[in-house]
């Protein structure tokens, strides 16, 4: 965390979005099991680039998709884009399974995961809004 990095204005113009980039290394095999680094083997860890875009105003999901595909995607030409709604907690292997689908089928144009509610054993079902 770096306090003060996100500015409301730049050169007198309102900020539309904040973009953060981080590259990490992740390696899993087809099972998926973590592949531990082997000494003197530069190929055993694959770099993964993560980009986080925080919009200054909530302009709904379609606007977010436009940002990803029209702005960021055209510049970076990514092989795969994974979009996760705010407040969504992916399952343990969810993102891997999405990647796996694209990796194993070069003709695949898109896919989505399954969404399920986390209900803490059903006690929140006592709330009629949740139960509905």
SSE map:
Layout: E1 9-10, E2 13-14, E3 17-26, E4 46-55, H1 60-76, H2 94-104, H3 128-131
Antiparallel strand pairs: 1-2, 3-4
Your description of this structure?
The longest helix has 17 residues, at 60-76. 24% of the residues lie in helices and 18% in strands. It has 132 residues and is of the alpha+beta class. The protein starts with 8 loop residues before the first strand and ends with a helix. The protein has helices at 60-76, 94-104, 128-131, and strands at residues 9-10, 13-14, 17-26, 46-55. The protein has three helices and four strands.
Which secondary-structure class do the elements indicate?
A: alpha+beta
- List the secondary-structure elements in sequence, H or E: EEEEHHH
The geometry reads as globular
Strand order of the largest sheet: 1-2
Q: Gyration radius, to the nearest Å?
A: 19 Å
Largest sheet: 2 strands, antiparallel
Helix tally?
A: 3
Protein name: Chitin synthase
Organism: Amanita spissacea
Main location: membrane
Function: Polymerizes chitin, a structural polymer of the cell wall and septum, by transferring the sugar moiety of UDP-GlcNAc to the non-reducing end of the growing chitin polymer.
């Amino acid at each position: 965390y770096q306090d003060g990095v996100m500015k409301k204005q730049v050169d007198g113009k309102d900020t539309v979005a904040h973009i953060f980039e981080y590259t990490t290394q992740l390696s899993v095999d087809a099972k998926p099991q973590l592949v531990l680094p082997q000494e003197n083997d530069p190929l055993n860890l694959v770099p993964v680039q993560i980009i986080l875009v925080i919009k200054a105003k909530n302009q709904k999901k379609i606007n977010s998709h436009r940002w990803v595909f029209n702005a960021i995607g055209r510049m970076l030409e990514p092989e795969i884009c994974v979009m996760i709604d705010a407040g969504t907690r992916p399952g343990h292997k969810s993102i891997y399974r999405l990647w796996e689908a694209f990796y194993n089928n070069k003709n695949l144009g898109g896919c989505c995961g399954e969404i399920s509610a986390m209900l803490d054993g059903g006690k929140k079902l006592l709330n009629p809004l949740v139960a509905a």
